[in-house]
TrEMBL record:
UniProt xrefs under PROSITE patterns: CHCH (PS51808)
Matches recorded under InterPro entries: Cyt_c_biogenesis_Cmc1-like
Keywords per UniProt: Disulfide bond, Mitochondrion
UniProt protein name: COX assembly mitochondrial protein
Family: Belongs to the CMC family.
A Gene Ontology term for the protein's cellular component: mitochondrion
Main location: mitochondrion
Gene this chain is encoded by: LOC105034547
Compartment(s): Mitochondrion
Length: 82
């Protein structure tokens, strides 16, 4: 299974998505017998790469947010002690 093949949600994989969809249109029966399998494998790899990049970006954002929250907590603790 793959996520919905919407181009706006997967800009990195747009070209492969278009090729995969075209393959399914051009080969309505043969798609069940592996005609589009190579494109499916490429698509899966692209989705994995895309997900890894998003995961890394989200991790960096969360790291920054944690640091900001930690700084605010320390500031609040200092104000409470004064």
């Amino acid at each position: 299974m793959h996520p919905p093949l919407t181009l706006h949600r997967h800009p990195m994989c747009a070209e492969i998505i278009e090729q995969f969809q075209k393959c399914h249109i051009d080969h309505p029966i043969a798609k069940f017998f592996g005609q589009c399998t190579e494109l499916k494998i490429k698509l899966d790899r692209c989705f994995r790469e895309e997900k890894a990049l998003k995961r890394k970006a989200n991790f960096e954002k969360s790291k920054i947010l944690k640091e900001r929250i930690q700084a605010q907590r320390q500031e609040m603790t200092k104000k409470g002690l004064e």
